[in-house]
Known about the structure:
By secondary structure, the chain is an alpha/beta fold. It has one domain: Aldolase class I (TIM Barrel, Alpha-Beta Barrel). It is 42% helix and 17% strand. The chain contains ten helices and eight strands. It has helices spanning 3-10, 27-36, 52-62, 76-84, 97-106, 117-125, 136-139, 141-148, 167-172, 192-213; strands spanning 15-21, 41-46, 67-70, 90-92, 110-114, 130-133, 155-158, 177-181. Strand 7 (155-158), helix 9 and strand 8 (177-181) form a beta-alpha-beta unit. Helix 2 (27-36) runs parallel beside helix 3 (52-62), helix 2 (27-36) runs parallel beside helix 10 (192-213) and helix 4 (76-84) runs parallel beside helix 5 (97-106). The longest helix is centred in the last third of the chain and has 22 residues, at 192-213. The mean pLDDT is 88.
Amino acid sequence: MSTDDRIQEIVASGVIVTLPLDIGEDVLPIAEAIKGAGAGALEVVPASLDLLGAIGQARMRLGRDLHLGVGGIVGGDAAWEVIRAGAAFVGSPHLDPEVLRFCREEEVPAFPSVLTPTEMAHAWDLGAGLVKIYPAGALGPEYARLALQGLPPLRAVAAGGVAVERVGDFVRARIAAVGVEVETASGKPGNAFQVLGPRIRAYVEAVQRARAQAPRPAPPSRPVEGPDVR
Length: 230
């Protein structure tokens, strides 16, 4: 499967959940709650890379039912570690060329956080097929629409304080998915679905309604380079 195909699967539900994970917390019941609410992707931001083993085990248990990636990654060494641990994608808090290089070489999707159109275009040039516009909630959907206007056809996630009431506006602004930040279930993983499920489901349903009302753009494609046969 190509990287573009993987990205298409990751954004299919229209919701990518971001979860900070502390030492001693079990990601599996939380991931299962997120999957049960209809989200297709979970970005875990671990407090320590020592948690990568548990994240890798959870991904094996979940299979392709939920795309489990790792966020907050800076530098090539850290990117290599999370790729070896089996991350479905790699998120970074800023445009990090080393992270993008490692991910491109290993054919793992990388989602850098960006703010300006210049950063978005640079991310595309470095091989990113998806960027995270942050903080999209403060900037608003009109900013996202104007920032993406005239740029290469990369897909974008609106993340950082996006209210569920504004999801439709972001989808209509050419946003492929929205990011939803959640906390752990108050230290009670057994109650994860009751705590997290309704909120995530509300975002998934808001995306579905907005997509049903507007035509969806075709997935972006990069030109295939080959020999000049003229």
